[in-house]
Specification:
It is a single chain. With about 220 residues, the chain is mainly alpha-helical. The protein has a single domain (about 1-140, about 185-210), classed as Orthogonal Bundle (Triger factor/SurA peptide-binding fold), CATH 1.10.4030. The chain is built from 8 helices and 7 strands. Strands 4-3-6 form a 3-stranded antiparallel beta sheet, with helices on both faces. It has a two-stranded antiparallel sheet with strand order 1-2. A two-stranded antiparallel ribbon has the order 5-7. The longest helix is centred in the C-terminal third of the chain and has 28 residues, at about 170-195. The relative contact order is 0.19.
Length: about 220
């Protein structure tokens, strides 16, 4: 199976502390990745988790801390959603991807800063763009499958606001918050069910940590 081949190609988990192979000061960094899970026959690597977290995708918050089992679990669940979106042929156009890439670059200091960070950490731009495309698929699946079918009753809005006077836009903001909370809850329930049906192998013990494949904090 492909995920077993991937396991053989990377360093053993016990050697994960050497994720960034030492190179001469003048040489480009070499990323030595490690498989931390598999969903079906597709491996999930520490590099996948670290890159998603560095770029703030799939609900990750950028942080220069080691990867833990909870990070791997978030990536597994994101992959379940992405796989389903691909099965349903939920696509992302090139123009949409390009606009999202430009917005991502702006959040990280501009295109030049993002390109320099990717190059300095042995991350191929194509890898980051594929992950961003998957993130957009994930978001679109959540919108089409769940958020689009959430209807909030006026009495629910009133209960959320409570008694008393409220600003003119308070009802709209409360309605959107309730819609988002309901959609997120339904998505989480769907992911739980999908995880029970899927073939998932978790290779990182609950107490283990994996150092980031790069020593610098994200941009």
């Amino acid at each position: 199976m492909r995920w077993l081949d991937a396991v053989r190609r990377v360093a053993a988990l016990a050697l994960a502390a050497g994720l960034l192979a030492p190179t001469p000061a003048t040489a480009a960094p070499v990323l030595v990745d490690v498989v931390v899970a598999a969903v079906g026959d597709a491996p999930v690597t520490a590099g996948d988790v670290a890159l998603a977290r560095a770029l703030g995708l799939f609900g990750f918050t950028p942080a220069p801390t080691p990867i833990v089992a909870a990070d791997v679990e978030r990536m597994i669940r994101a992959k379940l959603v992405v796989d389903e979106s691909q099965r349903l042929d939920i696509g992302v156009g090139e123009a949409e991807l390009e606009a999202a890439w430009e917005a991502l670059a702006e959040r990280h200091g501009g295109g030049a800063a993002l390109a320099a960070w990717l190059a300095g950490h042995a991350v191929e731009p194509a890898w980051a763009r594929r992950m961003l495309r998957d993130h957009l698929r994930h978001e679109r699946f959540a919108e089409l499958r769940f958020r689009a079918f959430v209807f909030v009753l006026e009495e629910e809005v009133s209960a959320a606001l409570g008694p008393g006077e409220h600003p003119p836009d308070a009802r709209d903001r409360a309605r959107e918050r309730l819609r988002s909370e309901t959609a997120e809850r339904r998505l989480a329930e769907w992911v739980e069910e999908a995880a029970r049906r899927a073939q998932i192998r978790r290779l990182l013990p609950p107490e283990a940590v994996v150092p980031l494949p790069w020593s610098m904090p994200p941009p």
